[in-house]
Amino acid sequence: MTRKAVSLLLILLTLVCLSGCWSRREMSELAIVMGAGVDRTPENRIRLTLQLARPAAFGGGAETGGAGAAERQNITWVVSETGDTIFEAERNLALKISRRIYWAHNIILVFGAEAAKSGVGNYVDFFMRDPMSRENIWVLVTRGEAKELLESHSELEKTSAQSIGFVERNKAGLAVIFKDFAMALASRGSNPALPAVELQKLGEPQGSGMEEEKQHEEVVMTGTGVFKDEYLVGWLDTSETRGLLWLRGEINKGIITVPSPGRPDKLLSINVARARTRVEPEYDGENIGFNITITIDGELLEQQSGEDLTIPEKVEEIEAAAAMDVIRKCTATLEKAQGEYGVDIFNFGEAFHRKYKRDWKELKYQWNDAFAGAQINIYAEAHLRRTGLLTRPATVKK
Amino acid sequence: MRKLIRPVRAKLLAAKKNTGGASEASAEKTKDNTDRDKTSSFLSEDLSSNLARIKEIFQNCSDIIYRQFLFAQREDIRLVLIYADGLADKLQVSEQIMRALSLEVPMAAPEADITKAGAYHLIKERGLCVHQIKETDRLEDVIEAVLSGDTVLLVEGHPFAFINGMRGWEARPVSESENEMVVRGPRESFVETLRTNTALLRRKTRSSDLKLEMMQLGRITKTDVAVVYLKGIANDKLVEEVKSRLQGIELDSVLESGYVEEMIQDNTWSPFPQMNHTEKPDRLAARLLEGRVGIMVDGTPIVLTVPTVFIEFMHSAEDYYERFQIGTVVRIIRFLSMFLSLVMPSFYIAIITFHQEMLPTALLLSLAAQREAVPFPAFVETLLMELTFEILREAGIRLPRQVGQAVSIVGALIVGEAAVRAGLVAPATVIVVAFTGISSFVYFYSASFAIRLLRFPMIVLSATLGLYGLISVLIIIVVHLCALRSFGTPYLSPVAPVSLGDMKDLVVRAPWWAMFTRPRLIGWKNLKRQEPDQKPVPPETRTGEKGGGGDTGKQ
Fold first, then answer.
1. Where in chain A do CATH 3.30.300.210 domains reside?
2. What per-residue confidence (pLDDT) applies to B73?
3. Residue B544 has what pLDDT?
4. Average pLDDT of B102-127?
5. Do B366 and A58 touch (CB under 8 A)?
6. Which of A8, A56, A107 sits opposite B361 (nearest CB)?
7. What is the pLDDT of residue B553?
8. Which is more confidently placed, B416 or B173?
9. Which of A68, A256, B131, B485 is found 20 to 30 A from A347 (Cα to Cα)?
10. What Rg do the C-alpha atoms of chain B give, in angstroms?
11. Whether the Cβ atoms of residue B541 and residue B550 lie closer than 8 Å to each other
């Protein structure tokens, strides 16, 4: 019995040495990073900007409900420091911050346009290597400076980082987590594309004491930043971003607006309930081709005209128009990617790799060029499954 | 199961009988020596010498009453009544003995019959109006009878004494159980008088198989102890083991069943109780029916039952009386709260001082906001709060009723409100500690004490090693529980060793018609509780089937 107990204790003791991070840290000793931004200074140094949460201002516990929104404290603290590497900048920051920089709850990583143009390869390694930083943070690129973006605040959420995080989580636009971004960087068959964000004046704060406040600038998503390898080469607008999502097969929700059959001046909107994209590469030794098949299941959610859309012919007409709309958007995006930027941001290279393993070995080194010359056919097939709660619109009979 | 007596213990017992018996024998000898001069002798025919000897023994015992009177008004036949004041029923003594013997006998019996020689026979057969009489010729029996509340009658010229069972002392009436509350189910609970308790039990189980074997424990207190079991259901070896362990007890006093428990339990150092106890006759009967053995101790309403398995503490009498779905859900809640009351504070500490990454961001921010003002580390804070809670709980039990309200108000206000307002503790800590405290009341009290105790090492280890420490303590606890035995039954059964058939009464409480076997490791001697296939069937289905098989598959 005693021997058993002793040996058990010994086994447990050896386990103590095996465990990794076992130093305790009190919560009030942490500087919780909500968002991080990377910029390039004119002197060609890295400027790391951190949005730190100020828990004291969060008003948890007893004091909630006391002070209203009128006297709002700064809920975050945004600090920047430069360095030659990310880690150096972080250490420089740590020298000035009273608490330990705590990365585990970081929500977003923003690249400033200048930093992205000079190549993000210099910046990503730290975020993969550091055990505290997570791989599921949202990665973004901004047209301006990441610092400015992080300095903003959100009207609805506690911090602007959380606000962006929630927008990304809705998957309304392109949403890229760090792991996928790093994989796209490492892969020859695809190039990273990051959601582009910028500050926009959005709405006005309401209520007493708010009249004098300036119009508020909120972080919004405005499209996509296109990368070639690690360099930012250009942008896609929101419509082209939709095309990108269609081609990537990442559409989760969204709408397609098409003209009403027989009434081109009236429109109707279809809610996309389910969408699937199939990429079928073709290669005859010389020409690369892709057949993209997009299948869409949708339901009618808005109709401006007064027609009865339960008639099968009309439904077919709507379906064709919706398919055309998707194809149009995709083509526009493709043209830009193939023609203007010459990058494969659609992961087509990966699909090609899966099908033609042997040929990939030769092609992978100049895949972007090969992609630019590829013949891409897009087929779309839309199905209107439901018409919402109405079968006929409530309009005045003439 | 066959080895009911564990080898070590068996060896010890054997050793005690053979070699170590010397000390036992010597102890007995000294006991005998002290008693022999006074009591170990027979009564004499001379009443006054008997009386003198008894009075000598009861020297300075002011509560012993000697009442001399005449049998049938005859000066030559003197009688003496001896009893302890307060223990005997005074009214009955004066009515049924004194009045009957001195006044009524002459009316009933002819004058000629009343002789000195025939007096003894006359008293026994015609005089005493007492429901229970014992005769003895030994002095020590007389002494014992007086001490246990019986009334002793000595007759002039006869070396015999009557022991009249006329016990009647002030006792607490049978009242509602205060510690084992039920909403549905019998309310009555045991009292301090053993005889009342056996009667309560007998009322529940009207079977001649219900055996009550009496013994006396405690060299000075001479406490009556009854080993109760159902013959044919309880394992004979278990009964023997219980009796032999009880006989091994040599205490000078047994004032509560806790004395007995500590003397016969398997593992003294374990914080977990290896004997269950109850104060409700229905629960005792239910356990006896599962093949367990009960130990009733005079002077306490708490009855011990063995063998005990850990899951018993998660069960309540009501589980069996309420509908089985309720019983099952409530048991799940009990298991959950048992686990939470053990783990919750340590988990809280481990998470907020080691594994902040495990929290959702919003929760982390709100916790961080709460902790911002708190000057102590989470460990110190939680430990302080746990201690405070334990103090409050102890105060709640001990304090006089009248000040109860004051303490609870002060406790609730100071701990709950002022401490948070003053920024001494975080609201989350108060919630955790309060929740832990409440959930430890959900299951059986004496098991909750073990959990309460183990919580503290767990807190310390989580504060030093994080979740790793928490898990290590959990592993140690589980290993310990697996090693525990209660009278030969594995403490964790039917979970370890697995007994699939007993899962019907573990977390799930199966309906009564489905529980047709007793717990396998305890009631294996007579496994079958009732006929299977007794599931109630609606009449229309019943007519369609031959013999009402009980399967409602085709409805």
1. 237-398
2. 83
3. 54
4. 79
5. yes
6. A107
7. 46
8. B173
9. A256
10. 31
11. no
The nearest alpha carbon in chain B to A15 belongs to B468
Residue B260 reports pLDDT greater than 90: yes
Contact between A205 and A297 under an 8 Å Cβ cutoff? The reply is no
Determine the distance in angstroms separating the CA of A219 from the nearest CA of chain B, rounded to an integer.
Answer: 20
B58: pLDDT strictly greater than 70 = yes
Q: Pick A61's closest partner by Cβ from B369, B466, B475.
A: B369
SS (H, E, C) chain A: CHHHHHHHHHHHHHHHHHCCCCCCCCHHHEEEEEEEEEEECCCCCEEEEEEEECHHHCCCHHHCCCCCCCCCCCCEEEEEEEECCHHHHHHHHHHHCCCEEECCCCCEEEECHHHHHCCCHHHHHHHHHCCCCCCCCEEEEECCCHHHHHCCCCCCCCCHHHHHHHHHHCCCCCCCEHHHHHHHHHCCCCCCEEEEEEEEECCCCCCCCCCCCCCCEEEEEEEEEEEECCEEEEEECHHHHHHHHHHHCCCCCCEEEEEECCEEEEEEEEEEEEEEEEEEEEECCCCEEEEEEEEEEEEEEEECCCCCCCCHHHHHHHHHHHHHHHHHHHHHHHHHHHHHHCCCCCCHHHHHHHHCHHHHHHHHHHHHHHHHCCEEEEEEEEEEEEECECCCCCCCCC
Check: CB of residue A21 under 8 Å from CB of residue A41. Answer: no
- ipTM value for the complex: 0.83
B-side interface with A, Cβ within 8 Å?
352-354, 356-357, 361-362, 364-374, 377-378, 420-421, 426-427, 463-466, 468, 472, 475-476, 479, 483
Mean pLDDT for the stretch of residues B356-376: 89
Name the minimum distance, in Å, from the CA of A368 to any CA of chain B. Answer: 39
Instruction: Quote the Cα angle for B115-B118-B123, to 5°.
Output: 105
Query: How far is the C-alpha of A35 from the C-alpha of A106, rounded, in Å?
Result: 5
Cβ contact B368:A27 at 8 Å = yes
Q: Which residues of chain B have a CB within 8 Å of the CB of A158? A: 365
pLDDT in tens, B3-54: 444 544 544 555 444 444 444 444 444 444 444 444 458 888 888 888 999 9
- Summarised one tens digit per residue, pLDDT across range B430-482 is 999 989 988 988 888 888 889 989 999 999 889 888 898 899 999 999 999 99
Which residues from A are below 8 Å from B475, CB to CB?
A: 12
Given a cut of 70, the residues of chain A with pLDDT beneath it are 15-23, 59-73, 205-215, 395-398
Tokens 């023997």 found at: B240
Domain A237-398 has CATH 3.30.300.210: yes
In Å, how far are B136, B158, B167, B172, B492 from B125, measured between CA atoms? 16, 15, 21, 35, 59
Which of the residues B349, B354, B357 would you substitute to probe the A interface, choosing the one with the greatest number of A C-beta atoms within 10 Å? B357
% chain B with pLDDT above 90 = 43
Confidence (pLDDT) at A205: 67
Distance (Å) from the alpha carbon of B273 to chain A's nearest alpha carbon: 20
What distance in Å separates residue A59's CA from the closest CA in chain B? 6
pLDDT at B130: 84
Give the confidence band of B97 by pLDDT, cuts at 50, 70, 90. confident
pTM above 0.80, yes or no: yes
Residue B460 to chain A, least CA–CA distance (Å): 13
Give CA–CA dist B134/B152, Å, rounded.
9
What's the CA gap between A220 and A224, in Å, rounded? 12
Residue of chain A nearest B466, judged by CA positions: A22
